[in-house]
Amino acid sequence: MNRTNLWRNVRFWRFAGQAIAIVLVISLIAFLGFNLNRNLARLGIRFGFGFLQSQAGFAIGETLIPYQSSDSYGRALLVGLLNSLLVIATGIALATIVGVTAGIARLSSNWLVRKMALVYVELLRNTPLLLQLFFWYFAAFLSLPKTDAPLRWLGFSFSNGGITVPGGLSFSPEFSALVLGLSIYTGTFIAEIVRGGIQSVPKGQWEAAKSLGLKPAQAMRMVIFPQALRAIIPPLGNQYLNLAKNSSLAIAVGFSDLYAVASTTFNQTGRAVEIMVLISVTYLSISLLISLLLNLYNRRVQLVER
């Protein structure tokens, strides 16, 4: 290939453009890193993560693994990470249930059910999440009866000390308010995604299901919803990512998630850069994992053309 053809080759320019972009990004990162090291050296601070081995010296209210104040900062951050993962996993599961239910209800033939779903979606998705978390924590859970005289319903126990489920598990008011707030708020957006996905299915599919003698609920479960998933999954992933990032608001209701523990660690050690790097990398990894899982599932539900 001569030089003239090379300059006109589209594939060459695509490759060259990507190479130039990579070089520019690496150069920018190197420049920022050099400035960071120079400024830290000027302040007499050495960049490093050795502080993670030092004693934390603070307690954490809720832990999934054993932890004491005499443990290291690394152990404390691990506890916070596990708490965050628990909130994210539980929140995604509940938000999906709430969102799918509300999305289907938005298309219900029952006027009351349809309007109730509409009010839920329009009211809560247009209200700040932080305000909703404050409501669930201060106005809902902390206003419940004391633990010695809880409210009981279907085996569940509700008090200002949290929720106890029939399986014997108990959840603190901080965890309960956070998960409930995240789930109900994110569920409003999922409901609209589900509604749009269902409406994207051709009406002929409803007619075909009806001609086979399927009841509306059976048609939705066996015919319509599986096809609607192809349109639902991509935007659904964005809401899962939003929920994962919004879980950092746990500090507002006193729940010890990764961000809350990292903030305490920063206040005690003054390691702002290292803490921000750890938080950024962790949330980035969680987001990439969620995206990967959703993309894999999305490939399974998409039509394969032959």
List keywords for this structure.
306 residues; mainly alpha; MetI-like fold; 2 domains; 4-stranded antiparallel sheet; 4 strands
Topology summary:
Elements: H1 3-8, H2 10-42, H3 73-105, H4 111-124, H5 129-141, E1 151-153, E2 156-159, E3 162-164, E4 170-171, H6 173-199, H7 203-211, H8 216-246, H9 258-269, H10 272-301
Antiparallel strand pairs: 1-2, 2-3, 3-4
Helix pairs in contact: 3-6, 3-9, 4-6, 5-6, 6-8, 7-8, 8-10
Question: What does this protein structure show overall?
Answer:
By secondary structure, the protein is mainly alpha-helical. The chain has two domains: 1-47; 52-301, Orthogonal Bundle (MetI-like fold). Helix content is 68%, strand content 4%. The chain is built from ten helices and four strands; from the N terminus they run αααααββββααααα. The chain has a four-stranded antiparallel sheet with strand order 1-2-3-4. A hairpin with a 2-residue loop joins strand 1 (151-153) and strand 2. Helix 5 crosses helix 6 and helix 6 crosses helix 8 (216-246). The two termini are 36 Å apart. The relative contact order is 0.11.
One letter per element, helices H and strands E, the order comes to HHHHHEEEEHHHHH
Estimate the global geometry from the Cα principal axes: flat
Helix content: 55-70%
Largest sheet: 4 strands, antiparallel
Q: Indicate the proportion of strand residues.
A: under 5%
Which blocks of ≥5 consecutive residues have pLDDT under 50? none
Can you list the strand order of the major beta sheet? 1-2-3-4
- Average pLDDT confidence is 87
Task: Supply the CATH class of the largest domain.
Answer: Mainly Alpha
Number of helices: 10
Backbone CA Rg: 25 Å
Query: How many independent structural domains?
Result: 2
Relevant CATH superfamily of the largest domain: MetI-like
CATH architecture identity of the largest domain? Orthogonal Bundle
Q: Helix/strand-derived class?
A: mainly alpha
Name the quaternary structure.
single chain
CATH topology of the largest domain: MetI-like fold
What is the CA-CA span between the terminal residues? 36 Å
